[in-house]
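testing teh design pipeline on a random one, pls ignore if ur not involved
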C-alpha cells in the first residue's frame, strides 16, 4: 500500500530544500514491557517512511530508568521488529550516550541555566503551581555556578540519597505549558544498570535525553505520538541550548486505538501479574507476541496500519478492520480443511460397515498451486451439532433436518431419517442414508440439496482442542471498576472436536477451516496433541 500522509510531505520538502540529504528516523521503545498493536503504528510509520526515501531507521532503547528495564523485553522487541519484516540500520541504547548527556548538563550549569534543587518531589509539585496559577521559583534556583557544579558532581558520585536532589533547568515558572516550569533533567537512582553497571548514580530524564540522543544519532525526523505535543517546546529548548551539530525535528501523529482493546502497558502488566492471562504471549493479548500466537501475520498487521493512514488526531477503529486484512492476506496462502468443533454423530445406514472410501479434495479452490489431498468417507461421520435440527423452521434454513437432504462438502448427498436421543431428550446420533450417485464432480444435478455442510470421517479423523477467543474486557462492566472485575471470564473457551485426516498439527501452521474461519496451531501443538487457536471467525449462527 502506497504511503501518503502529512509527514511524508514534510520529508519530501526537507529533501527538496536541501535541509537534509538523507532521511533518518528512529523507534525508541522503553524496554519495560512487550510491544502491542498500538506500538505497531510507530514501528511501521518510522520504517516505511524512511524506506520511501532510501533512508534508515535506528532502533534505540530508551534505557534511562534501570529500575524497570529487563533483558527479556529487549529481546522481545528486537524479535517483534524482525517478525514485522524490518531491519534497523543499527541498534543502540540511550545509555550509550550517558557520558555525552552528562557533558551537556555540565555545560548548561556553566551557562547558568541549570541548577541543583533540594526540593522533594512533593515540594516541586507544589511549587510548580497549576494550570490556573503560576509556579514559584525554588529557593535553590539561584545557587552559584560553582556550587551547582560541585553538587552535581557529588550527585554523580553517589553522595546523596534518592529523591534528595535533582538537576533542573531554568526556563519559566509562569509558563502556560507545565513542562516548561523548570523541568528536572537528572534524578538520583542508586540501582545498577544493565549496560553501565554501577558507574552512574544519576540518570537523565526522557525529555532531556531524547532530543540529545536524536541529535547525536543525526535523526532528521523524530516521530512520536500526540501526547508529546506539549513536550515539543522542551525538546526544542534542549536542542537550542545545547547547540548540537545535527538538529532533529519532532513531529507528532495521532495514536491508533482499537475498540474494546486495552493498549496500556500498565494494564497489560496487571493482567499478567494477576494471572488472568497466561503471559504476554497469551493469544487474547493485543501484544505483538500474542497476536502472532493467535495466528496473525506480519503482512496483515502492516497493511492494516498503512490503511488507517496518519493524522494529527487520535483515532479509534474496530478490531474487525484488522481481521479483514488478515483474511485478505491468508485467503490465497492457506490450505482449507474440514473440522467439527461440536460433534454430532451421523451413521449412514445404507453404507457398508467397515468400508472406507478416499475422495480427492483440492486444498484451496482459489489457488490450485496449493495442491490436493485425500479425504475419507465411511459409514460413521461427525457433523456440527448446529448443522442439524429435527424440524426445519423455515425455507431460509440451509442445513440438515429430518426428511431433508444436504450435500456433505466434496462428497455425497445425505438424507436424515431418524434420530437417537439420550435420557434427557438430546439428539446424540442421526441415522441417515446417502445417494451413491451424487458424488461431487459426477455431474449429478437432478435435484438440489437443502445446503452444504462440512463433516469428518469418524474412522480416520483426529481429535483436536480448539481455543476460541472473545474480548478480554467485559463491555457491560464500568470502566471505573478494577481491572479484575472488568476482565471477561469467558474470553477463552476450549472445546474438543475433530479435524479431517489430512490435518497437520505442526506448531504455528495456519489453515482455513471451512465454514468456520481462519485458525492457527498453537505453539504447544504436536501431531499427537493438536491445539488450534481461532484467529478470526467466519461462521454466523442460524437465527
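output:
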Amino acid at each position: 500500500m502506497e504511503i501518503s500522509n502529512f509527514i511524508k510531505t514534510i520529508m519530501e520538502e526537507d529533501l527538496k530544500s536541501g535541509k537534509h540529504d538523507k532521511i533518518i528516523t528512529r523507534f525508541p521503545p522503553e524496554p519495560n514491557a512487550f510491544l502491542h498493536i498500538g506500538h505497531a503504528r510507530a514501528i511501521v510509520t518510522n520504517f516505511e517512511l524512511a524506506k520511501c526515501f532510501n533512508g534508515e531507521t535506528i532502533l534505540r532503547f530508551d534505557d534511562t530508568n534501570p529500575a524497570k528495564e529487563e533483558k527479556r523485553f529487549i529481546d522481545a522487541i528486537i524479535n517483534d521488529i524482525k517478525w514485522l519484516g524490518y531491519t534497523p540500520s543499527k541498534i543502540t541504547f540511550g545509555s550509550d550516550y550517558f557520558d555525552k548527556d552528562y557533558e551537556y548538563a555540565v555545560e548548561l550549569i556553566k551557562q547558568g541555566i541549570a541548577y541543583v534543587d533540594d526540593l522533594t518531589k512533593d515540594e516541586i509539585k507544589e511549587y510548580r503551581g497549576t494550570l490556573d496559577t503560576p509556579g514559584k521559583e525554588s529557593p535553590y534556583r539561584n545557587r552559584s555556578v560553582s556550587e551547582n557544579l560541585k553538587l552535581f558532581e557529588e550527585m554523580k558520585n553517589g553522595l546523596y540519597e534518592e529523591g534528595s536532589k535533582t538537576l533542573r533547568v531554568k526556563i519559566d515558572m509562569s509558563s502556560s505549558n507545565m513542562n516548561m516550569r523548570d523541568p528536572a533533567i537528572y534524578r538520583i537512582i542508586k540501582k545498577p544498570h544493565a549496560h553501565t553497571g554501577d558507574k552512574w548514580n544519576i540518570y537523565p530524564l526522557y525529555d532531556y535525553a531524547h532530543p540529545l540522543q536524536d541529535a547525536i544519532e543525526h535523526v532528521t525526523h523524530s516521530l512520536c505520538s500526540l501526547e508529546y505535543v506539549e513536550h515539543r517546546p522542551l525538546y526544542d529548548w534542549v536542542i537550542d541550548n545545547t547547540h548540537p551539530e545535527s538538529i532533529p525535528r519532532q513531529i507528532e501523529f495521532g495514536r491508533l486505538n482499537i475498540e474494546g482493546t486495552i493498549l496500556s502497558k500498565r494494564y497489560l502488566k496487571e493482567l499478567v501479574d494477576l494471572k488472568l492471562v497466561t503471559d504476554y504471549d497469551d493469544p487474547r493479548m493485543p501484544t505483538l507476541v500474542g497476536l502472532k500466537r493467535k495466528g496473525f501475520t506480519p503482512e496483515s498487521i502492516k497493511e492494516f496500519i498503512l490503511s488507517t493512514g496518519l493524522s494529527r488526531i487520535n483515532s479509534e477503529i474496530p478490531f474487525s478492520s484488522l481481521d479483514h486484512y488478515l483474511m485478505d492476506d491468508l485467503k490465497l496462502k492457506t490450505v482449507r480443511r474440514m473440522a467439527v468443533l461440536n460433534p454430532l454423530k451421523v451413521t449412514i445406514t445404507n453404507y457398508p460397515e467397515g468400508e472406507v472410501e478416499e475422495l480427492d479434495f483440492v486444498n484451496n479452490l482459489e489457488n490450485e498451486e496449493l495442491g490436493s489431498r485425500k479425504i475419507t468417507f465411511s459409514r460413521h461421520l461427525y457433523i456440527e451439532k448446529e448443522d442439524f435440527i429435527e424440524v426445519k423452521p423455515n425455507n431460509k434454513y440451509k442445513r440438515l433436518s429430518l426428511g431433508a437432504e444436504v450435500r456433505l462438502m466434496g462428497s455425497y448427498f445425505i438424507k436424515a431419517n431418524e434420530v437417537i436421543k439420550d435420557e434427557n431428550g438430546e439428539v446424540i446420533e442421526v441415522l441417515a442414508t446417502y445417494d451413491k450417485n451424487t458424488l461431487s464432480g459426477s455431474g449429478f444435478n437432478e435435484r438440489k440439496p437443502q445446503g452444504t455442510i462440512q463433516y469428518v470421517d469418524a474412522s480416520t479423523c483426529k481429535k483436536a482442542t480448539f481455543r476460541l477467543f472473545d474480548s478480554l474486557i467485559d463491555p457491560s462492566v464500568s470502566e471505573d471498576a478494577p481491572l479484575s472485575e472488568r476482565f471477561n471470564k469467558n474470553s477463552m473457551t476450549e472445546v474438543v472436536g475433530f479435524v479431517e485426516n489430512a490435518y497437520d498439527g505442526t506448531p504455528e501452521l495456519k489453515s482455513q477451516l471451512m465454514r468456520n474461519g481462519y485458525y492457527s496451531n498453537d505453539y504447544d501443538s504436536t501431531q499427537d496433541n493438536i491445539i488450534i487457536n481461532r484467529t478470526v471467525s467466519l461462521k454466523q449462527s442460524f437465527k
